[in-house]
Structures are given as C-alpha cells and as structure tokens.
Specification:
mainly beta; 376 residues
C-alpha cells in the first residue's frame, strides 16, 4: 500500500480483525505536540513539536511485563469506541515546597478526575497496634499504578494461597494474609481517593492513577470475551461472540470521553511545577482517502481517539484512527492519502503524472535519476 502523507505527523498502518471476523486496514496518524510551559495558564493551543515521538509497537511497562505498571500501549489498536485521555508524570508540591499530601487533577470538558498523592510511608508499630506511619514530605512524586492501591499477596504459611487485587494487581498496600507483625515495614500506596485514606491492608479502595490500565485488570479483562473449549472448537482464530471493542480502550472508564473535534481545553493542576497548566487541542481535521485496487476511492474522517500527556517531558501525543473493511487483505488497498495535498498534486494524479512541489524538487529528482542511470 502506497501511503501519501500530507501532514507533518507520523503515519502507520496495520491489518485489524473486527468482531464479525472481517479484516480491516487500520491507519493511525500520530502527532507529538509541545505543552505551552511558557504560558501555562493561558490555555494556548499546543504546537506541533519539531521532534516527533515514534510509534509504540508493543506494550511498554515500568518493569517486567505483567507484574509492573503499564506505561504505554501499542499505538495500533484496531479501533477505539471512545477517546482515551491518559497521563504519565508526577505530582508536584505547590511552589516547590515539600508537602506530605498534594491533590492533583486533570480535566477535559465534562471529564474531571482528581485524587490525593501522599509521601512514602509504611506500616509501623504504634503502642499496641500496627498502623500506617506518617508520610514523608516530597516535592515531586511519580504517579503510576505501581504506587496505587493493590497488589498480590500470599500466605507465608501456605504459599499456594494467593490473592490478587483485581482492579490493580501491580500495586501496593493489599496484604490480606499479613499478620500484624508481618505488616511492619510494608509499603502503603502513594495515591488514594480524596476523602478515603488507605488505613487497612484489606480494604476495597480505588486504585488511583492517570495512566493506562493493564489488559488483565478488572473489569477490562472481562471485555476481551470468553475463550473456552467451545471457542477453541468452533470460533478460533476469530474473536469470541462476547468480545467488546471497549477492550481496546487503555484508559480507565472515568478517563474516556467522546471523540474530540479540536479546540477543546484541557487543564492539569499540580501535575507540573507551574501548579495549574491549561492547553487547547489543535483545531485540525485529519481526512484519509483510501484507493482500492478496483479504483474506488473512499474518504473517511479519522477519529481523534487517544490523548496521551507526558507532563514531565512537556509534550502530548495525539492519535487519529480510521479503518476500511477488506476481503483480500492489505493488497486490496492500493493507496492511502492522509491529510490534504496541494491541488496540484490531485491534478497531476488525474493526468497520471508525478507531482513536484517546486522546480528545486524537480531538478533534484532529475539529478538523482541521472546518477542512477550512470551507476547502472
């Protein structure tokens, strides 16, 4: 498939599988934009970065896959019914003054999520009981599911007895088998729901973070459907009948919004050293034109379905996605034009000619052709 990129962003494609078993060609457009640190409260539109972040080809984690927090998922999900709003970064104490507790928040239109970030702390002895000790002051604290409530615990006397906190099996603070003396020195989470402090090793607390949830986290895992003997015998290699496309959403449900159309304002509080930072999404459409091997052309608008903020590095990655069903795989799509090309390009295509944006480009092409002829 020939890809013609009329944007200054990255374009990639893959072959996806729909729940009904039909294949589709999926095109992903990924742009990296700079957060307006020079005007943190002005709500300025983000500007395209000179350095574009590469595609994420496979899931990335903070440590070993499956037992550490997901940081980034592959950019090539076949579809997303909603827009994921994600953030990886740190909580910053206001004014850079050490604090033991800081409330952070992220807002995008009607979506607003906030929680508390607390300093490092452990369980310790207090008179005749074991209880959480005072948190230590911090100026910046990373926010990930590694530091949120959750985890896996086993019985020291019966190691085969293991319990996992389904909503976040990679976290800390969940110790259902620990006896009081075994709790001493065990870590508590650095994030917690405002007004619901983590004080018990067995509580049903919410795991608080802004990053992607794992594919095995509850309730996301259930959206993948049922893979039983009937599926092996009668459906494999296709998706099960109860597969839900929302499985492809890597953001928790409270961080999913309708597809933005551009110009929406986002706001972060205590997630950068500036305290409050606001910015607007670019007001840009990303049309995609597919040309099939039959010669038929189809124009589709790409949906902005991922907003990924890296607050510590001062950038935000936006991903647009569009797909077209095919019956003969990738060869069925002859050409894909992303964005809008100059009118001269479309005129040259209608005439079956090559388009050159300037005399300099034409001269360079001719010189290259002559060099290739001389080399042969």
């Amino acid at each position: 498939m020939l890809v013609v990129n009329g944007t200054r962003m990255l374009v990639g494609y893959t072959l996806g599988l729909r729940p009904d078993g039909r294949e589709c060609v999926v095109v992903v457009v990924k742009g990296t934009f700079d957060l307006p640190f020079d005007r943190p409260q002005a709500g300025s539109e983000v500007a395209l970065s000179a350095q574009q972040a590469p595609f994420v080809l496979s899931d990335e984690f903070s440590g070993a896959p499956g037992v550490s927090a997901p940081l980034r998922e592959s950019d090539f999900a076949p579809e997303k019914p909603n827009c994921d709003v994600l953030l990886i970064g740190s909580a910053h104490a206001p004014g850079g003054r050490p604090a033991t507790r800081v409330t952070v928040s992220m807002q995008a239109g009607a979506m607003k999520k906030s929680f508390d970030v607390v300093g490092d702390r452990e369980y310790g002895k207090s008179f005749l009981s074991v209880s959480p000790q005072s948190s230590r002051p911090f100026t910046a604290m990373p926010i990930t599911y590694d530091r949120a409530y959750g985890g896996v615990d086993s019985d020291t006397e019966k190691p085969d007895k293991v319990r996992s906190f389904g909503p976040n099996p990679v976290g800390v603070g969940f110790y259902p088998y620990a006896k009081p003396n075994e709790l001493v020195g065990k870590r508590l989470p650095n994030t917690e729901e405002s007004g619901s402090p983590v004080t018990s090793p067995t509580g049903e607390y919410r795991a608080m973070s802004f990053g992607p949830v794992g594919r095995n986290f509850v309730p996301r895992a259930a959206l993948a459907g049922t893979y039983d003997q009937d599926w092996l015998d009668n459906v494999f290699p296709f998706l099960p009948a109860d597969f839900d496309p929302r499985y492809y959403q890597s953001a928790p449900p409270d961080q999913q919004i309708p597809y933005p159309s551009g110009g929406e304002t986002f706001e972060m509080v205590n997630l950068t050293p500036h305290g409050r930072l606001a910015f607007r999404l670019p007001s840009a459409e990303v049309p995609i034109e597919f040309t099939l091997s039959s010669g038929k052309r189809t124009d589709l608008p790409a949906n902005l379905d991922t907003v990924f903020i890296e607050s510590d590095s001062g950038r935000v990655m936006l991903s647009w996605r569009a797909s077209i069903p095919v019956s003969q795989g990738l060869p069925e799509v002859k050409e894909c034009v992303v964005g809008r090309m100059p009118e001269g390009w479309y005129h040259a295509r209608r005439l079956g000619k090559t388009y050159y944006p300037s005399i300099q480009h034409l001269s360079a092409a001719r010189r290259k052709s002559r060099l290739e002829e001389d080399a042969s």
